Inverse folding.
């Protein structure tokens, strides 16, 4: 039994300090928003210019000029603020975002992350990924443990184009919670029913 | 002395073949729709386009790509912009993809008289290839240069005849910075108000950074990804 | 999660001997009067002060100079600040005078994660002595480094419990930039409002840059140079 | 007959293009504000954060939080805007101020200006002087032709600490209007009754 996507998001929510400023990447990280404790006082940052991003609008309340960095219609919570992109990336690059939760294609035992381009694949672009990875105080990665074809995403060293070097502090997958430790990954926690052996088999670097 | 022009055609009259043009908007959000359309129809060509997304869903700046008037693009994200994918694949447009923070900071530098700066973003990646790397206080940074333009085409919610601007929500994005970075910033505004109607503390971008204003009350404002929650979802 | 502290003493409780402190205000305009006074009375010493003027007319930060709690100052203008002239003359405070644009851009860089940048300001002057000079596109520029601080003490017109700020007129000056550049930004506000009372588009500085808020309704607001015109002057 | 201070200010006002953005330094340049044509559409910039600075307030209307860079109480005209110091100096350094009118201690034939420090004198500080001199599109200097002790202020090369190199495009004094031309100054215009000989005698560099 490994964790579902919702369970990964729930586990990730536990990594968030009350009152902190958090940027959620596209995909799996977006789910974390639904699992923040109501009284946590967490502020979601969207790099297109929102601090205090709220849930999707009710049907009929969509405003084409209130979107998140994935260009989805969203809302702004009371106490939220809008600002230009230079201010937004000053916030990110200047270390004022406490935590960024990112998806990835590869993450390495040395903390490197590669989440913007697959060699030979269609170029999707960089967007805010490199700034978030380089500038946030802490980087948490949520990802499936392997690709759909069964290749390890937790690797010794990335061979996909890097997003940033040595920035990832923790990774949560369906198998558990892992920390990059240089030459391998340490196991912080395993999902119920997942054996260390299974984690070891599916990881592209030593479990240390 | 008013900066107000009576038509979008008049407002863009100085744009020539080969111009470098910054266009505000995050995808289709906050697009200067009328100015973008007017440039496409004006017959200018060989443009360098500086824009986060260069259109999407066949809309906005996609019109420039379809009209083959863009020779070079600086952007940060391609995503599902099929028009841009097509141009990249056939090699007819030279596309440079930048990290978004570096993209906007390079424009901010241009507007602020800063020719170059160092950033941690992109160190150890292809973005830093061929650029100077320098260590400050034990961390490596890459030197990035100011990114200038001849024109900026932006959208605002409210503007006065001096060019003082109020933006609305996330339609603000790159627009004020692009206005600062361009020699001529042209703004298309939902609402045109009188001098003094915007309180000095409510101005998002002072008129010093704006050269031309045109009033365009109606906009299409396409939503790229409509995401909603149902009321029952919450009531349950 | 509120950032609101009930007293100025509580708000400054983390300031220790040897701290680097940025203080907002252009001269006495926009001073965090209560925070400045509280630091003077707190007994901390050996401070590094980063402020445009370091007080004037014996008021504001002049209290810190008179209390001998400042060891080093970064400022841009001394003018008629006799307290500062005295400290410079007797050598008891190490004073570095910077061009004002460089002063604020160095703080902006610190807040924005930029370790260094190039500026045309000061090239060929004593300001550039010992600093790297580099040519870009045929003009010389000097490299300046980010200017960081442990604390920023600023004044606002209106703040909410999340630390979102509205400033008033020229009392804004360096304050938002200092808040960005400091590890802990403490704001003293004329008015404390509820969450949501400031529209997202009306926020001058988002709460991400503010750590502590204290409500101080009354201020002295000394005018340094009162200049007026008489009504008759105009009517004639 | 040389020009009065008011005549210098009036002559300087003629250098201002309609609709331009102008920063006026402390002292003599401040007087120029009173001589702008009513319909000129000129916007006065004050580096502490105003575009659209107006005249001094009426008695009783002074606001301690509305001051100019000389820390004098001022007003803001309709259409004026307030902003932070980083934006203000982005405006200045980025070339968005069309003209700065500065006072000076020395100005040289090569366009150098020295207006912030006299060797051996009391240090007053730099303030916005170096940024205005380095960043404005055009620099106009208003000054007495000589010091109170009769020493030339228009010199071949400055020996006071520089504010900026090679930036001054025109100088107006009580004797007339002069342009720096490298090794000397050219005469653009002489005040009524001032001879070229007098100008030559009182200038510390050749008249070319």
């Amino acid at each position: 039994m490994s964790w579902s996507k919702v369970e990964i998001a729930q586990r990730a929510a536990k990594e968030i300090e009350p009152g902190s400023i958090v940027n959620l990447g596209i995909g799996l990280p977006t789910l974390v928003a639904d699992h923040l404790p109501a009284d946590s006082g967490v502020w979601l940052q969207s790099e297109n210019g929102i601090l205090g991003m709220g849930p999707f609008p009710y049907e009929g309340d969509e405003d084409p000029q209130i979107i998140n960095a994935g260009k989805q219609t969203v809302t702004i919570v009371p106490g939220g603020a809008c600002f230009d992109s230079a201010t937004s990336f000053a916030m990110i690059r200047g270390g004022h975002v406490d935590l960024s939760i990112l998806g990835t294609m590869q993450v390495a035992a040395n903390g490197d992350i590669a989440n913007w381009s697959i060699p030979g694949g269609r170029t999707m672009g960089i967007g805010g990924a490199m700034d978030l990875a380089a500038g946030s105080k802490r980087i948490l990665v949520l990802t499936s443990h392997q690709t759909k074809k069964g290749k390890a995403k937790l690797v010794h060293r990335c061979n996909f184009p890097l997003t940033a070097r040595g920035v990832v502090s923790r990774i949560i997958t369906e198998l558990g919670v892992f920390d990059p430790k240089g030459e391998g990954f340490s196991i912080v926690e395993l999902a119920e029913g997942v054996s260390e052996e299974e984690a070891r088999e599916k990881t592209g670097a030593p479990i240390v | 002395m008013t900066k107000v022009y009576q038509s979008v055609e008049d407002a863009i009259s100085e744009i020539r073949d080969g111009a470098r043009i910054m266009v505000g908007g995050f995808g289709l959000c906050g697009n200067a729709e009328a100015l973008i359309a007017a440039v496409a129809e004006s017959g200018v060509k060989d443009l360098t386009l500086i824009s986060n997304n260069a259109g999407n869903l066949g809309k906005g700046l996609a019109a420039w790509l379809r009209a083959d008037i863009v020779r070079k693009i600086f952007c940060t994200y391609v995503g599902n912009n099929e028009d841009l994918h097509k141009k990249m694949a056939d090699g007819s447009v030279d596309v440079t993809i930048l990290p978004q923070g570096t993209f906007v900071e390079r424009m901010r530098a241009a507007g602020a008289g800063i020719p170059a700066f160092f950033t941690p973003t992109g160190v150890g990646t292809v973005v830093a290839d061929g650029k100077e790397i320098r260590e400050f206080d034990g961390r490596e940074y890459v030197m990035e240069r100011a990114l200038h333009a001849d024109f900026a085409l932006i959208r605002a919610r409210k503007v006065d005849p001096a060019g003082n601007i109020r933006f609305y929500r996330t339609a603000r994005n790159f627009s004020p910075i692009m206005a600062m970075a361009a020699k001529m910033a042209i703004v298309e505004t939902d609402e045109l108000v009188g001098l003094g109607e915007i309180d000095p503390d409510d101005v998002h971008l002072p008129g010093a950074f704006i050269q031309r204003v045109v009033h365009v009350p109606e906009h299409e404002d396409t939503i790229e990804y409509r995401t909603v929650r149902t009321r029952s979802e919450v009531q349950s």
Summary: Residues 27 and 74 of chain A are 15 Å apart (CA to CA). The first strand of chain A starts at residue 21 and ends at 24. Chains A and D do not touch (no CB pair under 8 Å). The two ends of chain A are 23 Å apart (CA to CA).
